[in-house]
Amino acid sequence: MTTCLGIESTAHTFSCSIVDEESILSDVRSVYKPPEGSGIHPREASRHHADESAAVLRDALATAGVRMSDVDVIAYSAGPGLGPCLRVGAVVARCLSSYHAKPLVPVNHAVGHIELGIRLTGARDPLVLLVSGGHCMILLFSGRRWRVIGETLDITPGQLLDQFGRELGFASPCGAKIEELASRSSRYIRLPYTVKGNDVSYSGLLTAAKKALEGNRVEDVCYSLQETAFAMLTEATERALAFSRKEELMVVGGVAANRRLADMLATICNRQGARLHVVPIKYAGDCGAQIACTGLPAYKAGISVEPSRAFVRQSWRIDSTDVPWRGDGTYKERAADLID
């Protein structure tokens, strides 16, 4: 049985996970926590990752009950993400690959969210809603790639919640705190609602919500912000679901942990006769398991790079990335050709 070590370092989380074809054997994380009222500082987050990497790797191996000699493949998040953070993960992966003579697989972080979701939910051919701090996309698979049929035109829902939370003095990530505040209210304050086809826009909503804090209860503004943001996303998703005629909708990414969003999506799935798959909360956020669960089939499809050619790409769109293990036939080109 093939065993893969996955290393995740795109933003605030440094994580290592050991998986094989049947199980997630371990998933250990260390999360950079910025000061209250602040967002992620790439340099400080990368220092956190460098400081914590050895301990996280050691714990992941110990939890899985394996040694590096037992690992067959090493996968790492090559992008998209914060440059300094990505480089820490890439350096750790490259060093381990070189020293232990293990194949090295670069993974697109967004593909990782989907692969882990499919593995955990059992979805077969879903329409995918990927929604997190770094992503907001509606996707379907066609021609060996995930195709974007709807996305944000500016900031993501995760960024919306984080930036609004920082206005309240919270430290990123802020989604759980805003969800808790929103649960204390049912008073809706009218806020901008912007849907353009299958695309959404959140920057105007953020500005209006900040202004609404003057003269309104914080709980009411959080409720109104969350209701508006998720209603926009739900409308676009239902349109894509009806258009694609998919029988499954899978939700992945950190914001998938929000219960109100899941409730809204369940409503449209009932209306469209589709099954709803939501990634388990434990694996909704960034984690090494998403990298390992992608690196394993990618390696079996012939994708790997020499350690000296390991790369990171801060901007690496999912619709420019081939996914040959879900495509037609084998794909044996080098990873450098695959992504160029």
Number of helices: 10
- The ordered string of helix (H) and strand (E) elements is EEEHEHEHEEEHHEEHHEHEHH
Compute the gyration radius: what is it? 20 Å
Report the sheet with the most strands, covering strand number, pairing sense and barrel closure: 5 strands, mixed
Instruction: Note the beta-strand portion.
Output: 15-25%
Shape: globular
Total DSSP E strands: 12
State the share of residues found in helices, binned by percent: 40-55%
Which class best fits the helix and strand makeup? alpha/beta
CA(first)-CA(last) distance? 31 Å
Low-confidence stretches: 328-340
Mean pLDDT: 94
Kindly report the spatial arrangement of strands forming the biggest sheet.
3-2-1-4-5
